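Illustration 12: RNase H type-1 domain-containing protein.
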Amino acid sequence: MMFSFTSFSRCQRLVNNPILTLIRNLHKEPIPVTWEKPEIGWTKLNFDGSCKGRAGKGSIGGIFRNHKAEFVLGYAESIGKTNSTIAELAALRRGLDLALENGWNDVWLEGDAKTLVDIIVEKRQVRCAEVQRHISDIISIIPEFDHCIVTHTYREGNRAADKLAQLGHQSEKPQIWIHIPPHQVLQIMHDDAEGKPVFRRR
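Figure caption equivalent — predicted structure in token form:
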């Protein structure tokens, strides 16, 4: 049967109907997202990059915690004009450097940029030379650890790192916190340690 343009347009209006979209979304159950503690002896890094405004002002942040969900170290830094992809990679690279400096050999790296996490885990090549340079640096550093895993979490499971990346926008110089976290992440850390879920809409 021939499908006319008029029929196609009518179907498109039906598909794009905001009321139907709302009804479909209401029927989708939200996903509970929780932060997971690392194993004993492991240190977990949650990292995040942020990019704001037309000028593309970038910042990075990250937080290290142990198997008890205790704060070990955090960092935040403004990195100037960039894009969100480079900011994410810079956040991870900074975290890797800090992990090596502190002698942590068993490290769990977790971020909310799924595509980048997949590229790093699968050691894939990308077309952008600048992005590939950052990825290659990261991939070359990871074998320096005794054990290292890289995983993706939803944004709701990465809230502490996101908060630190936001603090980076406000920082005139790089910030590092050791043992005592900034007060802006205390409630998030408490919720994470308790395993409190944050519900993500599908």
